[in-house]
């Protein structure tokens, strides 16, 4: 008896995920013959083999990989359609593919609480600094810094406004002197950020004389991730410019020191985006709320400045030494 095609697609997707007919059957609560027959029925209907089967392993064919990605998208669409009209629409559940920058790994300690609060969610993080194509790559949403035109095919929920922080290790600055103006950067080893999307070096941005200024960094090291630029700065390679969410913890700890703070320029808004032609599902909304909770609306710079003032005040008091008190004489009782 022919099986429902949607059922067969669910079974096939689970076989790919589990890498085994037996494990997929256990996971779905089905018999192994049922799982095997569901995949065989799909292959017969499509007229092509979807899986390579050997005694040791099971892997998808090229056609199977393509069909698997389409199956996942269709199954997600069905789940979203159910959510849109069912009483469970307020619950985040199902598979969520979210693209995040490499700096998002700094926020991993916050992730367990989010996953515990959404037990029905299966989160897959695509960690890259590259600008991804959400539709072509089957990604539900992305957290990234970018400006979006009004006619964009993406819907953006703006989360945070950050600043570009120019920084270096105290050891590097002690050996090469701290730059006091933008022009001083010409004599420093500047860590170049090479965009993984365009392959070009990204200019540094500053605010000076009431306007935007750009500076093309020159140095003997280029990296394709902001996290890599921070690591190089920590190692004393040179000066880097990165958004404050990438570097705030190292500035708090004193491992890196910000320079040229009077020329700070804002980054593009950090936002969670999703395709405009897709329903805002509970899972995307839950992820956007999570990102909004861990990224301050004004970025991390205000907290960096607050801590810097506290540290400076503490050092000033320490340099002044202990406060001397003069003992007051008791009045003569005679």
Question: What's the quick description here?
Answer:
The protein is of the alpha/beta class and 334 residues long. The protein has helices spanning 5-18, 21-28, 32-46, 62-85, 111-117, 170-176, 226-234, 244-253, 282-294, 301-320, and strands at residues 51-53, 58-60, 94-100, 121-127, 141-145, 154-160, 164-168, 192-193, 204-208, 211-215, 222-223, 240-243, 257-259, 270-275.
* Number of discrete helical segments: 10
SSE class = alpha/beta
- Low-confidence stretches are none
Gap between N and C termini: 117 Å
Based on the coordinates given, report the CATH architecture of the largest domain.
3-Layer(aba) Sandwich
Q: What is the CATH T-level topology of the largest domain?
A: D-Maltodextrin-Binding Protein, domain 2
Main β-sheet, in a few words? 5 strands, mixed
Total domains: 3
Order of strands, main sheet, comes to 4-3-5-14-6
Series of secondary-structure elements, N-terminal to C-terminal? HHHEEHEHEEEEHEEEEHEHEEHH
What is the C-level CATH assignment of the largest domain?
A: Alpha Beta
Rg over alpha carbons: 27 Å
Strand content: 15-25%
Q: Helix amount, in percent? A: 25-40%
The number of strands is: 14
What does the average pLDDT come to?
85
